[in-house]
Amino acid sequence: MNRRLSCAAVLAASLALAVSACSSSKSSSTTSQKDDSVLSTDGKGKTVTVWLQSDAQKGWPAVVKQANDRFEAATGAKVNVQWQQWSNYTTKLDSTFAGTTAIPDVVELGNTQTASYIAGGAFADLTSAKSKFDNSGNWLQGLTDSATSPEGKLQAVPYYAGSRVVIYRKDLFKKAGITAAPATLDELNSDLDKVKAANAGDPHFSAFYMPGKYWYAAMSFVYGAGGKIAAKDGGKWVGGLESSEAQQGLAEWQKLATTYSVGGTTKDEADQDAIMAQGHTGAILGNGWEVGSITDPKTGKPALAPDLGTFPVPSATAGKYTPSFLGGSDLAVPQKASNAGLGATWIKYYTDSTSQTALAKFAIPNATSLLNVYEAAGAANKSTGEAAKDTWFVPNTPNWANVESGNVLQNMLESIASGKATIADATKAADAQIATTLNAGS
Q1: Is residue 391 part of a domain?
Q2: Same domain? 169 vs 313
Q3: Percent of the chain scoring above 70 in pLDDT
Q4: Of 152, 251, 296, 352, which one's alpha carbon is 20 to 30 angstroms from that of 243?
Q5: What distance in Å separates the CA atoms of residue 139 and residue 388, rounded to the nearest whole number?
Q6: Which residues, 6 or more positions from 166, have their beta carbon under 8 angstroms from its beta carbon?
Q7: Nearest in space to 294 (alpha carbons), one of 145, 119, 166
Q8: What range defines the domain where residue 175 resides?
């Protein structure tokens, strides 16, 4: 999932190709089709080709198999799952969509990729059949937003997700006199003061390692304070980081990055797991699966496993959490697919309650109604499941990829963390860049 959570920047370079490759096929759109043609069960003698990432092959192959079996029994079609890798995946999608043959009937995409392909006309419109997909009324918002066009059309289906939580050293917190997870941001800061003081003899110690370019983390605090990255006003995008709410959230983030973090002012979060494995860190903000990365026998430190715990990032109010960025995957039917109706039906089986309940043993399912199943599957799932209930997502526009590739937020945050600019000055510059980028071509 790590690859998937930050892939919009890669998409910027390939967007032009994707748009040109897909726009010519818009005349074959299923927009006007009825449910019985969007979801076909006429599969005798046909084979549905599905592109799934190898995460499923390695993590939950039985979930895939049971969905295939049920789909084949219901339709008479066969399923050919072709396992993919995130590396250079958008390049493969672009070159495939540019052709007219060997088009898969279903593709998996990271949710930060989906908007740009929707804008390029790459996918069939599933709106009229939305109610036929299980739990569509309570899909996770961060996935639903990514799967829906700005005009409100459903052009992909949420698959599964990952959320960020605090991963911390229980032993270090206990030695500092802390016996319970903090309930508010004030309590978190108080706990970190104690952890920092207890390890004052280690010049490399970070009570909470927070890299200066970690924009997913910083924006969680922005949204937690009631702010936004950007919003539409009168048909135009306007940057929202100069608002008092956004600046309050950035001040909370700045405290973590400057008071409790050492050595990461000019870095992003890419190597934070390895840094925590070195033993000089009390806590990080990471996806739940990063616990396994920290303790990996080849790249981490297995001995830390008993000492690692997780909790959702608290908010200013007890009982509520700071929103988490929801990364994950969507499933879509390519516009040029030979078996579009069968592809949509395969997605229906693979994302129904039966499949998602089975998937919940391994990853966050696509609906809030199934989070209790996920949380019950393991002690570590409780915090990530809670974090998935209150989430945020990037502005829903294909131009967002250019904000990421332009490092607008990363550069803003680095200037704040390093003291090169005040929050007010840094956000003013960033808002101007965000507005120009998001409104380009409109």
Answers
A1: no
A2: yes
A3: 92
A4: 152
A5: 11
A6: 208, 283, 284, 285, 310, 311, 312, 313, 383
A7: 166
A8: 164-324+397-438
With beta carbons less than 8 A apart as the criterion, state whether 209 and 281 touch: yes
In a domain, 145, yes or no: yes
**In CATH, what number is assigned to the domain containing residue 122?**
3.40.190.10
Cα 16 to Cα 19, 20, 147, 185, 195: the distances in Å are: 5, 6, 20, 43, 49
Same structural domain, 337 and 265: no
> What's this model's pTM, rounded to 2 decimal places?
0.85
Residue reference for tokens 């016996």: 179
SS3 174: helix
Given a contact cutoff of 8 angstroms between Cβ atoms, the answer to whether 37 and 30 are in contact is yes
Q: Is residue 430 part of a domain?
A: yes
Domain count for the chain, please give it. 2
Q: Which two tokens stand for residue 56?
A: 């499923």
From the DSSP assignment, how many helices (H) and strands (E) are in the chain?
20, 12
Whether residue 107 is found in the same domain as residue 219: no
Do residues 214 and 340 both lie within one domain?
A: no
Q: How confident is the model at residue 112 (pLDDT cuts 50, 70, 90)?
A: confident
DSSP at 122:
-
H helix or E strand, kind and range, residue 51:
strand 47-53
Report pLDDT digits (tens) over 299-341: 999 999 999 999 999 999 998 999 999 889 999 999 999 999 9
User: Which element (helix H / strand E) includes 159?
Assistant: strand 157-162
225 and 111 belong to one structural domain: no
